[in-house]
Structure formats: structure tokens, C-alpha cells
Amino acid sequence: MAKSDREMNSVRLQSSRLDEKNGEIVAHGWLDMEAIQNLRVGDYQREIMENRGGKVSSLRRGVEAGARLPDIMLGMRGEKYTSRGDDMLLENDVYIIDGLQRISALRKFATDFPDKAASIRIGAEVRFSTTRDSENDLFTVLNLQRKAMAPSVILRNKRNHHHSVATLYGLTMHDRNFALNAKVCWDQQMHRGELLTALLFGKICMTLHRHTTTGGRHITAGGDLPVTMDRAVAAVGLQTFRNNINVLFEAVDEIWGLRGIKYQDRATQTKGNFLIQFAGILSDHEDFWDGNKLVIDGDMKRKLKSFPMQDPTIIRLAGAGATAGELLRRHIIDHINKNKQTSRHLVLRRMEYYGKGKTGRVKKAS
Hints:
Helix content: 40-55%
Strand order of the largest sheet: 3-7-4-8-2-1-6-5
Structural class: alpha/beta
Strand content: 15-25%
Order of helices and strands: HEEHEHEEEEHEHHHEEHHHHEEHHH
Radius of gyration: 26 Å
Shape: elongated
Distance between the termini: 95 Å
Number of helices: 14
Number of strands: 12
Number of domains: 2
């Protein structure tokens, strides 16, 4: 008998049984390749890491050797299922919560060896009535307890709850006019052409706005970053926050270049220490601001263009840790102030105005 469209698009859990786990009803059973092909992948998942390291290679070797892989965890976004003897037909969309790499290895094996696809099976635990957020929470807990999840993945998965993170994600992933479009890594590992991790990108953007909010000067763990950035967004407005980030990286591109860079290790201006210090200088000095709006004029860009980016000392400081930051910062400020009268040196923002939405000029010596 031909299968109905519903059966074709559903996930069949074979030899299924219902169980209770921590007060929640879950289903256990087996999936064949047909069921595996109907599983969905949420946007909170890490990228598929085939051929990127020993763990994935060992997964593939295990599949080829016929070894039983650990069970996967699934979430069905609903409660609708139909019993078929010992099987359970899961009729709502079913998402992979834990086990994407295992599923990927099985799918690839079935593609490479279609004559063996019928023998593929893997155990599964199914949670009912999940949502994108509940799946993400469980995905995060499971992965934090195992192999460390990249901070950039954790940051990416918070974008539905933090306007600041959603803005950064949208700029780098969807705005083709942005200088760092497709050049920021929001995954577990960096890919060819990516210059910054999402965590570093977020820290740079927050450093640019650190004068706008309490705690802005003390960016620590990635978990605190979305909350701190949201406070900056509240202080300056979401569109201004976005525009300021555009101005910063457009300036870096115009002055030193970003869009044409292929390899991160060849570009001083893509080093984390350099970008953090440059963003901090912009935040700390009133010369670059018109109210809450970042402004880097043509004269300043021409001045910065002559900064000795290829000097061995600058390259070393840009690639060093935070302890080298103050020295690098001093080099940049001295270069900007060079050949200027003292009265025209950069104007430092008053420390007591940080996080209060105020500006103030430090008086120059007469």
C-alpha cells in the first residue's frame, strides 16, 4: 500500500515506548534512514563539522564499522502522534536537539553507500511540545556539560532575546553593504574568509559604546555581554547603535582595508587587541562624537592612514594580549596628536560622565 503524504513527511519511531523522565513523558525508539531524512535542524545548532577533526572522523569510522552510535535527543513541536503497532508516527515537526554530528555522519554514509542505507538505525529519545527556546536551552545545557561550546555559538543563540545581538547578527549575516558581511564567525569554528569571532566582534561593538552605560568599561564573560550591550542600545537607540557600528568598520575599511582581506594573520587591523583599543579610543574621546552619533571625519581618516601598521612593534602589540593594550593605545593617540598644538589634542571624556548620558570636556592647560 502506498504511503500517504502525512506518513511520507512524518518521523516513524520504531519499537517505541513511552517513559517518564524527571516528571516529563518522553518517547524512546529507533530511527531508520527514512525517518532520519525527515528530521529538522534548528538555527541554534552548531555547524556540521564533517572532516574538521578527530571526533567527526571517528564518527564516520564507527558508522562504516557498523558500531552502534549513542542515542540522539529530539524535540517534537507538538503532541500529535499515531500508533502503528509497536511504532509511533510523529506527525508534528521533529527537531534534532542533540546528535546533529551523528545524524550528519549517517546521512553522508547513506549517500556514499546507498546499498547499505537500509541497515542504518540509531536510537532516539523524543521530547514532546518543545519550542525553539526550550530546545535551545536544552541544547546549551547538554553541550556545556560536554565538549565546550564556542562562546560565539552561545552568543548567536541569544539573538532572539537581545536586540543588540540580533542587530550584530543581522549586520554580519544579511547586510551586504556592511564591511564585515560574511566575515564574522557565529559557529563553533572559524571558516575561510572569516576575520573575527562573534564574541570578539561583540566586545568591539560594546567597547565603542562603553561610555554610554554603567558597566560598559568592564566587559568580562560572554554571558554578560548581551545584557551590557542591551543597556547601550537603550541609552543611544537601536538605530544609532547600528549606525555607529557601521561607521566604525566602514572607517577601518576605508583607512586600512577590510573587505579585500583573505587571511586574518596578515592584517594588523583585524587583530582583536588593535580593534578593541581603537574602539576604546573612539569611545573615550569626545572628538569623535556628535551627541550619541559616532563621527570620523576625513581629516582624522587621513591622519590614521599614516599610522605605521606594518611597524614590527605595532604588529606585535596588536597580536598580544590585553596587557599590551595600553601601550598600543598610547601609540595610536600619540600618532593622532602628533604635530598638533596642545589645544587641538584629543579631548578625553570626563570619567564621571561614563554611563550617565553626559559629555564633558577636560580643560586644557592655557
